[in-house]
Specification:
The protein is α+β, with helices and mostly antiparallel strands. Helices cover 31% and strands 22% of the residues.
């Protein structure tokens, strides 16, 4: 069989291959950095994994530091430094009063750094509390150094309603037994994010002690200007830092960016210091006190032409009834097809009457029933007359009670000196699970906290930013890491792809048939079939016999060439999608046959040239056909 000169890949296969490559690329994206390619799976980058080492805790520079890395693997290891609360809430029902939230030390759901672990709240819709004493049981005393509080939170499932704040517990009886840690345990500072519905907060609350009578009041920091939404939905770790200085100033940072700052004296509600004077609770407003700034003019009188009886709207005097209006026809008529229900009781329900329906006669007419002119505004309407207002000559101003000295007044110019801190506690309730806390630090030097963050949080951000350059991570962030949404999105995107493949597949047979028909016509034109008389010619002896054989061989060869062209055209249409290896095997089988035919043709040409007998033109065409096929095969 003669090998046809056609491309190695059909257009259909090329298109399907390109589409499949696009799908594979979309499901297996890579991030290219220079000449290196890294997988987009949320695994720790090799470079960052090597850089990360568990930070070393220096008890001389830190009052508290917790990385949780050495508490992984043993269920009882968390109890070495942390105490789970066994208390109950006083103001809750018995079934929800227990602090039965589940805590565990584990890696994030999306691992970022190798061998980095955190404290995870596994349960939701449960009260959870856990606490730990400061290092060496050395309390933090507010004197001449600032307080720096820093920790990480990763809301791995997002947050709809719940908190992820921490409490710095006060020195006293409440921190002697942390198993009894609950919501009423005295604390000095509460700091961290909180959200419920559309109410987003970043708490900073400190408990201020009245220097006069010793009462304690919670002071709430004013809200920051910018709303913090990303930490509650992006499922990434975020760093929260609070700095309180001896000069009563404070700074709140999120991911190293300042989001709120001010003074303890002026930016809290209620204010730290009460007012020096208050309203006299015994003072009363005098009965003759006139606080009317303006009064009706007593000398004014109503004009004579002022008619208060005029209505606001009147019938349009210019309107006329349209022609064809049916005055004597009712708009609604009883329904003649209605039937009294069988269970109708005249004694109980009254006399039955058929329901009213629109009159069919009114549908074709301009209108039915009593015609009324439309209402328009009354030009003579003025409404109720009222005298104009004038200034009150007896006006005494707005009354207010007199001021007296505040018996509870005090002036605390150093609210920074708060109750010393003895422990760190996490006491929360959340409708979301898998809240991860990590890298909690309490110290008196900002540089120490920044150094700790550089060894932990900053490496995580670097790794996440690198992963965010991949197509996979961008797509997952876009769908908020919801696999269900991703599945629906994939099915949606697959619909046009499947339809296009089906369309191409349906065209395959039509294109193959068309190509086969074109091939057959082309080969029939190039290699015409020999006449039947040439095939039936008798063989002769001597020179004449040799010439007759030449004719017969040429005719046979031409017929074979024509049949080969026809069969090759059909094979081109039928075998278009076969493997290239099958085509090579077919070619190898055809080579000996064509070479044998070439040798026979060559011998015939030599005999014909040596013979004196004339050569038939069809023999010459057969020889030329052999040469063309050989050249085409080469």
């Amino acid at each position: 069989m003669m090998k046809l000169n056609r491309p190695r890949w059909s257009p259909l296969l090329r298109r399907i291959t390109l589409l499949l490559c696009a799908v594979v690329l979309f499901h297996n994206p890579v991030a290219v950095h220079g000449n290196d390619e890294t997988s987009a799976e949320p695994q720790p980058a090799a470079e960052d994994a090597e850089l990360y080492e568990t930070p070393k805790i220096d008890s001389k520079r830190m009052y508290f530091a917790e990385h949780f890395d050495d508490l992984y693997g043993d269920d009882d290891a968390i109890g070495k430094r942390w105490v789970k609360s066994k208390a109950k809430k006083d103001d809750a029902a018995e079934e929800v009063a227990k602090y039965d939230g589940e805590w565990a030390v584990e890696q994030p759901q999306r691992p970022i750094l190798a061998n980095d672990y955190g404290l995870v709240l596994k349960s939701k819709a449960k009260h959870a509390a856990i606490a730990s004493h400061l290092l060496l049981n050395r309390p933090f005393v507010f004197e001449d150094k600032p307080l720096v509080v820093q920790y990480e939170v990763n809301l791995q499932e997002g947050q709809e309603c719940g908190g992820s704040y921490i409490k710095l517990l006060s020195v006293g009886d409440g921190t002697k037994d942390l198993k009894q840690f609950h919501d009423k345990t005295p604390y000095t500072i509460m700091f961290g994010p909180d959200k419920c519905g559309n109410d987003v907060k970043l708490h900073f609350i400190f408990r201020h002690v009245n220097p006069v009578n010793g009462t304690i009041t919670e002071k709430h920091c004013n809200k920051q200007k910018d709303r913090l939404d990303d930490p509650f939905k992006d499922k990434r770790p975020h760093l929260y830092q609070l700095i309180i200085r001896p000069d009563n100033t404070y700074t709140i940072r999120v991911d190293h960016k300042t989001v709120n700052e001010g003074s303890l004296l002026t930016n809290f509600t209620p204010a730290v210091n009460p007012p020096a004077e208050i309203d006299d609770p015994e003072d009363r407003k005098p009965e003759n006190w006139d606080d009317r700034e303006k009064i009706p003019d007593p000398d004014a009188s109503k004009p004579d032409d002022w008619n208060e009886e005029e209505p606001a709207q009147i019938a349009d005097p210019k309107a006329t009834k349209p022609a064809g209006w049916l005055d004597d026809v009712e708009e609604m008529v009883p329904d003649s097809s209605a039937v009294k229900p069988d269970d109708w009781d005249n004694d109980m329900d009254g006399e039955w009457e058929p329901p009213l329906i629109p009159n069919p006669l009114c549908e074709k007419a301009v209108g039915c029933g009593l015609w009324k002119a439309p209402m328009v505004a009354n030009p003579n309407y003025k409404g109720k007359w009222r005298p104009p207002l004038i200034a009150n000559v007896n006006y005494q101003g707005k009354w207010a009670p007199r001021k007296i000295p505040n018996p509870d007044f005090f002036e605390d110019l150093t609210p920074f000196r708060m109750t010393p801190i003895a422990a760190v506690g996490i006491e929360i309730w959340s409708m979301s699970s898998d809240i991860l806390f990590d890298n909690i630090v309490i110290c008196d030097d900002e540089a120490v906290a920044d150094e700790w963050a550089a060894q932990t949080f900053d490496l995580k951000v670097k790794t996440l930013d690198r992963q965010a350059q991949t197509l996979w991570d961008r797509a997952m962030r876009y769908i908020n890491y919801k696999p269900g949404y991703w599945g629906a999105y994939f099915v949606y995107c697959s619909i046009p792809l499947i339809a296009y493949i089906w369309f191409l597949w349906s065209r395959r047979d039509k294109e193959s048939d068309a190509k086969a028909e074109v091939g057959r016509k082309k080969k029939d034109d190039d290699y015409p079939a020999p006449a039947e008389d040439d095939l039936d010619a008798p063989e002769l002896e001597d020179d004449g016999g040799r010439s007759s054989k030449t004719k017969l061989n040429a005719a046979t060869t031409g017929s074979s060439g024509s049949r080969s062209a026809s069969s090759a055209g059909e094979a081109y249409g039928e075998e278009e999608n076969n493997e290239q290896a099958n085509e090579d095997e077919a070619d190898e089988e055809n080579v000996p046959q064509e070479e044998e035919a070439q040798e026979v043709g060559g011998g015939v040409e030599e005999d014909a040239s040596s013979s004196d007998a004339p050569v038939d033109s069809k023999n010459a065409e057969g020889g030329e056909g052999l040469k063309k096929r050989k050249a085409r095969r080469d």
